[in-house]
Amino acid sequence: MSLDIATEYDRLVEVLRDKQPDAIVHFAEQRAAPYSMRTSATKRYTVDNNIRATHNLLVALVETGLDAALAHLGTMGVYGYGWSGSAPIPEGYLTVKLTTPDGELEREILHPANPGSVYHMTKTLDQLLFSFYAKNDGLRITDLHQGIVWGTQTDQTSRDERLINRFDYDGDYGTVLNRFLLQAAIGHPLTVHGTGGQTRAFIHIRDTVRCIEIAITAPMEDPSRVRVLNQMTETHRLLDLAKMIADAMGAEIAYLPNPRREAEENDLIVRNDQFLALGLNPTTLSADFNSATRARASFSQ
Amino acid sequence: MSLDIATEYDRLVEVLRDKQPDAIVHFAEQRAAPYSMRTSATKRYTVDNNIRATHNLLVALVETGLDAALAHLGTMGVYGYGWSGSAPIPEGYLTVKLTTPDGELEREILHPANPGSVYHMTKTLDQLLFSFYAKNDGLRITDLHQGIVWGTQTDQTSRDERLINRFDYDGDYGTVLNRFLLQAAIGHPLTVHGTGGQTRAFIHIRDTVRCIEIAITAPMEDPSRVRVLNQMTETHRLLDLAKMIADAMGAEIAYLPNPRREAEENDLIVRNDQFLALGLNPTTLSADFNSATRARASFSQ
Question: pTM of the prediction?
Fold first, then answer.
């Protein structure tokens, strides 16, 4: 079924009433940071589409009274990079101290928003929508702050060729690790923007699928607030990744100017305790020693 | 000229190119909290209209390269009530301490969002839009976190009857103090929702106009972030206001159930140092001793 939840609200309500889903996985957003920054039209489309899609879904859940578990794909990019010094990035909520005339007060707040693109900005707006509808209407919402996805196959898709999903490797939709692997496979230099000192969070596509399953089945401790889970398993400096792949596959590295306003270098330590406690068993790049080579083989076929 | 900035983006760009304004006052949003909570349609309209209007304007400013001072009408309601204990509500930014492995870190953050309605929520989304476009594109933006407006006339409108603006006193668009005054004038009990222990911030409409003038003319210290000014001059408990007006005008008070999910009682101390430093000379209810009676006379005419 094809349904544009950003523009077909009445049909969305009808479908929810008809299907009575126990869980909803909301991926229906424009997903590319580079695309979102290209032109006035792409900026406007990203905001209009993403905010209306998310808000329509929330309003429809309130209107239908459905008690479905909602999982939404957010991004690690809402936190910003290097904002909290050497402190690890927490799972959505940050404990801070305020000074008051009656002494210090401790408060847990949604981590301050530090988006690096219009796309990332929409995910910080989504958070506030979730926060309001969880508190005001008791909707059960999990926001998955995902790292950069790599890999092409899940256990399900590898069963049959016809199940293989699209593979994006372009400058708009391709993610960095997949792009490096593809560049190496076709003999193109690996393109690093800036110094490559940017550290980012990663997750294998197989773990992404498992995380979503956990998010919609694991009971929530406190449904009056949106649950935030960091959907990532490891962090790497982009240059380290590029070097690893260049070494393994015999490729060159080309340094390009960085089009983003971001720090040249940053450390990144991220908490993902909740997913680990809920049974996630990560597929890491480092553990999967030969993955780059195997990937090459699969790309070259 | 009539122009829907939420839906007529191309015309908006044309108008900006044509007029080359030095300043833009952005009031083009659905403004009622009760309306925003009424039905699915009003929730959706409030979000769609307000976010698109604000975002279109920001994108149009970037596209045209206009260096105009933008002032937007926000609300005191973004802060929530009673969230920071006895600490005064700061002007947009809150200083907090984070614990890190290398000791405590001090950070200034946008005050955490605690909206009480869909309408208020849109103002918290606006803040994130402003924050991004100030940082990323250097737009000069002032967000005015306004209290509840009272009074009907400014120095300008009182010059001629034809200049008098609309006066809202209904349950959707009427603000509490004006509503009390009108209820008293027509012999209706003053309707207080809940205990009346809610403390709110107020400003006279004459000061509102002056604040906007200041916001678009006073240079910004740091244009890389949105300037937030608390556009209010005094705080009152709603019950105290009701009693004052009931005493002065001989009216009754009727207690009704509170339809909002909010604390029954709250204290409220608000900083407005910036406006005072920039020359605002408040018209306060307390100083203006006979205002209730004079207002009655003007309402009865």
Answer: 0.93
